[in-house]
Amino acid sequence: MDNVILKTVNISKEFSGIRVLDRINVEIEKGEIFGIIGENGAGKSTFVKILSGIYAPTEGQIFLEGKTVSIRDPISAKKLGITMIPQEFNLISDLNVYENVFLGIERSKRKLILDSKNMAKITQEVLEELEANISPYDKIQDLSVAEKQMVEVAKAMVHESKLLIMDEPTTVLTPKEIDILFNLMRKLKERGITTIYISHKLNEIKRICDRVMILRDGKQISVGPTEELNEHEMARRMVGRELSQIFPEKPIPEDEVVLEVEGLTNEDLFQDVSFDLKKKEILGFSGLVGAGRTELAEAIIGIRRIDEGIIRAWGKEVKIKSPEDALDQNIAYLSEDRQGIGILTNFDISQNVTLSSLKKYTKFLINSKKVKQNTEKYVNELNIKAASLRSQLEFFSGGNQQKVSLAKCLDTDPKILILDEPTRGIDVNAKREIYYIIRDLVKEGVSVILISSEMEEIIGLCNRVVVMKEGRITGILEGDHINEEEIMYYATGLKGAVQNA
Amino acid sequence: MPKRRFEYEKYGALFALAALFIISSFASPYFLQVQNILNILRQISYTGIIALGMTFVIISGGIDLSVGSMTALVGGVTIMTLNGAMSSLGEVQAIVLACVVAVLFGAALGAANGILVSKGGIAPFIVTLGTMSIFRSLTLYIGEAGEFRSNSYMYPELGMGRFLGVPIPVWVFIGMALLYSLILRKTRYGRYTCAVGSNEKVAKYSAIKTNLIKFMSYTLVGASVGVTAIFLSSRLNSISSTNAGNGYELDAIAAVIIGGTSLAGGSGAIWGTVIGAIILGIINNMLNMLGVSPYLQGTVKGLVIIGAVLIQRGRRNK
User: Each residue of B147-183: pLDDT tens digit?
Assistant: First the structure.
């Protein structure tokens, strides 16, 4: 086949003697959208990291357009026309859009002076083609996550990539943005650009991918046309067994109000936010990207400024000026930004788990034995998979990192737990485990605020749902009203605007 | 059993020291003499003690360029205190007082750096570049660009004296290294220092008082400078306002980096710094014994530092 753009033969990878990828053989055709699914640690990321030159394969060969190639580093991958759009973007936030798009391949007049006008014009054209409502002169730091992703795609197009790798691109997108992204991918396909698409969301794979490869424990389980598989079958092949019910039963909250927020305002981020949280309740926060949910949570734990309004914990007004104050009130926060805020990748498990709670292990010196015992407890309870307690977190899969991050919150013995996108970027099985952990915590008396962009999660777990739009609460839903349509109405402002006036 | 990947990385400095030791013992018959070894240890103890504190600063993600001038300023003030106190107190009491003043004054100067870095939010490089100039200038002004001379006959015993045949500064260096190592590995402050240097945002969200941690690191290096200032001023029974402490910042930072602590912060080890200091000491010693021009020694030192950072960078890119 001369239509094959990429072919791998027996690609394998070992880390410290552990085989994480075992003889992967694929042939990907030009213009194809090729999906890869698998649980965390199945080897998806390792595979694409090999293709993009971040890791060298332990064995095996890669053929690009029929020729054998060695992809030594990301630069040589780029030269070969392979671009990876990572989950954490490679954009320089101080520069504007076109400067980022042309980073490294700047055009200049007479080889001396940068031709800004021309670069901005080309960028504008590409952005228009992508139907992205962004100006080439916008600063990256002012863009939303979805917009940054557009810029990454535009960058890949300007760099004339032949093969685009997208690692979990939709985790941070709203449904409408996902539609736009898929349109975009179809356009790339028309242009003959090949896309490798990694996702946990089986319905998306089904929607967009021509063929799909399923990995499990580093092994290639199957490769075939997407239309021949339904989602259920994909899930079964991923885990290697039937998935039992994903959401546990909802616990019943008590009447006692543990947290009461009244008229909370930060002039730049959110306005007049009022809600209460009951004991043993799971209170969902839904909304589109940019609705101000994370910012609200950060204000509650004392990271963001509060201009007006009061917070009461167990009926008493509290002034929380820092995360330490929040912990004093037994409020813990699990960030959506795992690697940026949640964990230290160069620390080991026990150092991470005890980072917020080190006080209870210390007189003058840290009691290593107690630290070890408690960490082992979490490793067992949360089913954290690790070679040893001393392994650094950078070598962990996303799901395991998230569990460590959660363990860190739990070790502070919180009574109120704010979970911000607790299952972002992790696989079905780990998700299910985390849902059951949340359920168990609630049973023990913890109250949970759950911020999530995953509709199913909100609907499946929460007792009540607060919907926000552009920094304001547009509705609080209960019972049968917690469904996808209703939430979307409030999130987009079709309902609830009057209520707020 | 899977191999631990960073084993080599961790012990790189130790291998370098072993190699250097073997080469040196062949290169010069005098090298292995006890007197020579003790001499090397005494020489490195001055900047070595500063380097112990510097390890904390660098792990926390900062740097302190002011330690050299700070040594001179603290040394000068120590001798002035000693002379002043001797008129009203006994000599021993005056020496004790001067030592206490040295450590506290050093800590205070370090604290000033720490406040500017943490509360002021100014880059450590800029803050300590500024105070480096300020401290030196104040020393020159107070000392009228000459020497601070002590009137005590007993004071030199501290810097020149020996205990069980080993110079007192060496004992103090070893003692402080053990203490600092314990602090870094086994206390909350030590753990938090690594966390702040690794990712300040994570540290902040983990309820760590990041400003306080940074402040403490600069205060700690200041106190360490105080100890060095005592030994330096006592060895010659004087402090030169123009020369004292010149280049100490370079030696201290070099020892930390050669010892394997990442300049980017986040991780490091005290024993690495000790080895780094010894490596620098041996190189100096060998260059002297082999008759290399003293003017060229700075070149060698510079190359070693750059080489150490190059090796670090190579490892990280793998």
Answer: 999 998 899 989 888 999 999 999 999 999 999 999 9
B56: Cβ contacts below 8 Å, ≥ 6 apart: B180, B184, B190, B193, B216, B217, B220, B221
Q: How far is B6 from chain A (nearest CA, A)?
A: 11
pLDDT value at residue A369: 92
Taking contacts as CB-CB distances below 8 angstroms, the residues of chain B near A410 are none
Number of residues written out for chain B: 318
Nearest to A342 among B182, B194, B202 (CB): B202
Across the interface, of B2, B195, B206, the residue whose CB is closest to A17 is: B2
The verdict on ipTM greater than 0.90 is: no
Choose the final residue of a domain: A210, A239, A268.
A239
Q: Which uninterrupted H or E stretch holds A55? A: none
Residue A498 pLDDT > 50: no
Q: B 209-228 residues with CB below 8 A of A?
A: 209
In a domain, A467, yes or no: yes
CA A405 – CA A426 distance, rounded (Å): 13
pLDDT band at A443 (very low <50, low <70, confident <90, very high): very high
Average pLDDT over residues A36-65: 87
* B71 neighbors B232 (Cβ within 8 angstroms): yes
Give me the domain span that covers residue A403: 336-413
pTM greater than 0.90 (yes/no): no
CATH number of residue A262's parent domain: 3.40.50.300
DSSP string for B153-172: SSTHHHHH-EETTEEHHHHH
Q: Say if residues A36 and A208 touch (Cβ distance below 8 Å).
A: no
- Average the pLDDT over B66-90 and give the result: 94
**Contact: B207, A323; criterion CB under 8 Å:** yes
**Which of A178-182, B31-35, B158-162 shows the lowest per-residue confidence on average (mean pLDDT)?**
A178-182
What is d(CA A202, CA A48) in angstroms, rounded to the nearest whole number? 19
Residue A440 inside a domain? The answer is: no
